[in-house]
Amino acid sequence: ADPWGIYAGLAGSGPGPLCSMSPRLIRLGKVPASSILASAPSDKNLDAWRESGCRTTHCNLEVLQESTLVFLATKPHILPGVLQEIRPAVGSHHIVVSLVAGVTLQTLQRLLPAGTKVLRLMPNLPCVVQAGAMVFARGSGAGDEEAALLKSLLSSCGLCEEVPESYINIHTGLSGSGVAYVYLFAEALAEGAVKMGMPGSLASRIAAQTLLGAAKMMLESGEHPAKLRGDVCTPGGTTIHALHQLEKGALRATVMNAVEAATNRARDMAKD
Ligand SMILES: NC(=O)c1ccc[n+]([C@@H]2O[C@H](COP(=O)([O-])OP(=O)(O)OC[C@H]3O[C@@H](n4cnc5c(N)ncnc54)[C@H](OP(=O)(O)O)[C@@H]3O)[C@@H](O)[C@H]2O)c1
């Protein structure tokens, strides 16, 4: 019944990244719900997993005993204790995937048995609507097979790319936090329309659809955004007048500064 021959066990099962990914995986039939075992100390978040047809436990070791593919998704300060607890049960057949922010592959490898197949994954919020942008990096024990498995499983939740580990903090600055910059821009777009007389709810919906359409064209055409932007500019027209205002407000430099600030903050938090 399980086309992948794997069992996805989950130690740490919050409402965040894992819950957003797993229902999609289950719906697509990539992993049967009955093959997923989620673990957490309390039932607070486990109810949602049970409602999706998954099995749950309060025992992390049970996840290791039953699963080949194990996702770790606790808060960072909890993780060392969980790794200490599961370490004796981790074997060469396990693939351990950590979503825990700021915890490096080096740390994961140090706290797990030598040679463990470890991968580090960073999702973002739109995984909830299967339009996520995820990157992952593999540890020294993980090979092409494990990377291909993870990519194949998660591609149903959005874009999933393998990257060098040093890109993970940049991904946080670009995409994890970037979702909030885009909301700010959407809000400003809509407010502009409200100022000019359009009702707020209509303006918000049109702002969202404008972002969606622009993003879709960028992905589907593969064109550089500067080219697509140029295509919208009629000489002497409305768009170039508006773009001039955005340039006066230093939009580009401000957004680049934002990505830099979030990336540096992610790096600092990882050091802590
Ligand atoms: N939220 C996001 O969009 C996002 C994106 C990228 C990465 N991340 C990372 O993903 C991780 C989880 O985030 P979240 O928002 O889902 O956090 P969360 O809501 O706090 O969920 C953490 C889960 O871990 C469980 N837990 C606590 N101690 C445990 C233990 N000893 N063994 C097993 N499970 C344990 C908690 O159980 P209880 O329910 O019983 O407390 C809870 O269900 C964080 O490291 C975060 O940095 C989050």
From TrEMBL:
State where NADP(+) binds.
A73, T74, K75, P76
What is the annotated role of this protein in its UniProt record? Oxidoreductase that catalyzes the last step in proline biosynthesis, which corresponds to the reduction of pyrroline-5-carboxylate (P5C) to L-proline using NAD(P)H. Proline is synthesized from either glutamate or ornithine; both are converted to P5C, and then to proline via pyrroline-5-carboxylate reductases (PYCRs). PYCR3 is exclusively linked to the biosynthesis of proline from ornithine.
PROSITE patterns noted in UniProt = P5CR
Top EC class, one word = oxidoreductase
Any one GO MF annotation of this record: pyrroline-5-carboxylate reductase activity
Read off the SUPFAM superfamilies from this record: 6-phosphogluconate dehydrogenase C-terminal domain-like, NAD(P)-binding Rossmann-fold domains
Q: Which residues form the Pyrroline-5-carboxylate reductase catalytic N-terminal domain?
A: 24-102
Q: Which Pfam families match?
A: F420_oxidored (PF03807), P5CR_dimer (PF14748)
Q: Which GO terms describe its cellular component?
A: cytoplasm
Subunit-structure text: Homodecamer; composed of 5 homodimers.
Q: Write down the chemical reaction(s) this protein catalyses.
A: L-proline + NAD(+) = (S)-1-pyrroline-5-carboxylate + NADH + 2 H(+); L-proline + NADP(+) = (S)-1-pyrroline-5-carboxylate + NADPH + 2 H(+)
The Pyrroline-5-carboxylate reductase dimerisation domain covers 165-269
Q: What PANTHER family does the record point to?
A: PYRROLINE-5-CARBOXYLATE REDUCTASE (PTHR11645), PYRROLINE-5-CARBOXYLATE REDUCTASE 3 (PTHR11645:SF0)
Give the EC number(s) listed in the UniProt record. 1.5.1.2
Pathway field? Amino-acid biosynthesis; L-proline biosynthesis; L-proline from L-glutamate 5-semialdehyde: step 1/1
- Stated name of the protein: Pyrroline-5-carboxylate reductase
